Amino acid sequence: MNDYGWDKNLNISTMGRNDMHEDYHHFAYEPTAYSVLLRLAERGYISEENTLIDYGCGKGRVSFLLSRRTGCRAIGIEYNDEIYEIAVQNLEHFRGDRGKISFVNADAEHFDLPPEADRFYFFNPFSVRILYPVLERIYASYFEDPRQMYLFFYYPSEEYISHIMRDERLMFVDEVETADLFTGEDVRERIMVFEVAL
Question: pLDDT tens for residues 91-129?
């Protein structure tokens, strides 16, 4: 099933790129391909016992698909008011358990994590300047209540990789290959999986 087919199946609308509100620190909305999300869902890192935070959730595709496939609770964080409203509208029409999904209109660096949050998804939603305080909030949440935490970085930029590979509080655990899902040989086409190790 292609992306359009999945949108139709879930009764949501998440297609298209939107760079109208892009700036130096907040990057354009571009949804992760469903095929990539399905591959992540199959790896076993996310289950119904987990709570996933999707930073820069856009119209909500990650939350809808991963919650539907794994049973997890999902919280999408979106700073742009207009795109956030689309995510909320999608939730009203979503063909699935709406009670497990919520969206928050907030800047990621100021979002207070719920104590049950333990899975985190990033598709280059913002600059490293914003990533740094976001990670600090994740670490602070871990210190308050130590638990297994996995961070998923899809299609990571060189800037992201440079930062996260030097962060001793993160341990690299896996790489989910996704290049075969597309034409070409794009080395960035992967999901890097890290665990908080404090």
Answer: 999 999 999 999 999 999 999 999 999 999 999 888 899
Domain range holding 9? 3-196
Quick check: helix, strand or coil at residue 94? Answer: coil
With contact defined as beta carbons under 8 Å apart, do 84 and 56 qualify?
no
Calculate the CA dihedral of residues 167, 156, 44, 54 and round it to 10 degrees. 90
Structural Rg of the chain based on CA atoms: 16
- What CATH number does the domain containing 184 carry? 3.40.50.150
What string of H, E and C letters represents the secondary structure of 6-71? Answer: HHHHHCCCCCCCECCCCCCCECCECCCCHHHHHHHHHCCCCCCCCEEEEECCCCCHHHHHHHHHHC
Q: How many domains does the chain contain in total? A: 1
CA dihedral 15, 159, 26, 190 (to 10 degrees): 20
Q: How far apart are CA 37 and CA 57, in angstroms?
A: 13
Residues 6+ apart with CB under 8 A from 146: 198
